[in-house]
Every structure is written in structure tokens, then in C-alpha cells.
Amino acid sequence: MIGRPANILPPEAVPIRLEIASGGARFGAQALDILITFGGLFLLFWALIWANVLDWSMLATLFFLLVFLIRVPYYILSELVWNGRTIGKRIVRIKVISADGQRLTPHQIVARNLMKEVEVFMPATTLLSGSFQSGWVGLALTLWMILVLCVPLFNKRRQRLGDMIAGTLVVDQPTAVLLPDLAATQSTAGVGFVFQPEQLDVYGRFELQTLEQILRNRPKTEEQRQRVSDVVHTIRRKIKFEEDVAARDEWDFLTDFYRQQREFLESRHLFGDTREDKFHKTGS
């Protein structure tokens, strides 16, 4: 499945175009996460079976209990720690974001992962356990899982039920590379505006890439010039830049900010401080 574009409007009012993660990428990430969560558990139970310390009924009960107690914290904690990414998502390079462009909140992460239990894992666990008398119950659970697994196929943003309830999207996270030709062009220009370290510390690499997209082409229409003006205003307010910027100097302001921001981030990266986005101070 080919990735679909999604236009996200963050609070800075600079539209960001991201690619919705394909079904194959999401399936691959889920498969890896299942291997991670179940792999260690199977090794533990193999040892218990070999030692013959518990009977089969107790082993089955313990197995299904531990599956729940390991799986749910794994998904929630990993997405909290890695800003919307589990180990599987990190490997296939996809991540969860908030659909409204705001910061991904713990409430959204918990909601989407608890819904995953209701959508797939709990019905699948019930089917595997065979803890029901009527065959109609098994058929109903099977139909439920098929229906919820088909939901992402019938909406443009490929959201499952948990994503719809939590207000989240799963998007591709390609390798972040700041294009060298633009950096070289900006580094040779004279510096008209100077920014302090505390001002450059506000944004991260994600916002710098967005600014780079704007600087690729000078504004030619009134609408494009107004967009540049809006971006300048947003950045000035965000970094508390008190100096006035005339309309004729707004492009120079952005290019100077881009160059100095890039140099600042690269210098921080040398010390092992990789700042992905504007939420780095809060530990996202």
C-alpha cells in the first residue's frame, strides 16, 4: 500500500505535509512488537514446562494473565518514552502523532492502546483460550476482529478505531536530512539578525526542516509573502525576539534564523543532545 499524504496544521500555522504510514509498515511494526512481548514470555513458560512446577491449567491461567500485564504497559510506556514509537515502530520508521498538530498527550497514547485491546487482543485471547460454550460467541468475536481490522482500509487517514477515539495518526518518519545546498547558500550570506542560544534552544530539527521547505522558493505572490510574514511573526513570538523586523527584511530574518538554528542544533548533536522538535525540553 502506497503512503497517502496528510496535511497537519500545528500551532505555528505552518502546514506540514506528512505521509500516512502504509498498512504494510504498520503490520510489520505490530509483528515485531508481538515478537518482542511474546518472545521472552514463551521462553519463561518453556522453562516452567520443562521444570514441571505447575500443572497445565495453572500454566494457562498464568500465561493469559502475564500476556495482558506485559503487553499493555509495553505499548503505553514505549510510546510515552519515545514520543509515539514502540520498538517495532522505531525499526520500520513510523510514529504516532496527534491529528490536530498539537503535542501527543499521555491521554491519547493510553486511549489508543487500550482500544487496541478491545479491538483485537482481548477477542483473540478469548478465542485462543476457548473459554466460551457457544460456537456463536466464537463466530461473533471472529467477525468483530475482521471488521475492526478492515476499518483502516475504508478511511483516508488509515485510522483504526483507537486512532479515531484518541485523535491520532500513524505516519512515516523518514530519515531527517537537512539538504546541504541550502545550508551552504545560507552560510555564505551576511548575518543581519543575531539570535541568542536561549532563542535557538526553542525549536528542534523537525521545525528546522519545515522552515527549510519554505526557504526553498522565494515568495512570488501576495499569498506567499503573507505566509512568510505569518511565519516570521510566529517565530518572533515563540523565541521572544523583541527587535522589529520590517516587511522587506522578513526573508533575511528567516534565512539568518535557519542558518544559526542549524549550526546550533549541529553543535548540540556533537555533545549527544539530539533535539527532534520543540517538545524536547519536556522530555518528549
Can you walk through the features of this model?
The chain is mainly α. The protein has two domains: 4-172, no CATH class; 180-282, no CATH class. The protein contains eleven helices and four strands. The chain has helices at residues 23-51, 56-81, 87-92, 106-129, 135-150, 161-166, 180-187, 197-200, 205-215, 222-239, 250-270, and strands at 4-8, 16-20, 94-98, 168-172. The strands form two sheets. A two-stranded antiparallel sheet has the order 1-2. Helix 1 packs antiparallel against helix 2, helix 4 (106-129) packs antiparallel against helix 5 (135-150) and helix 9 (205-215) packs antiparallel against helix 11. The longest helix is centred in the N-terminal third of the chain and has 29 residues, at 23-51. It is elongated and about 80 Å long. Residues 186-190 and 270-279 have low confidence and may be disordered.
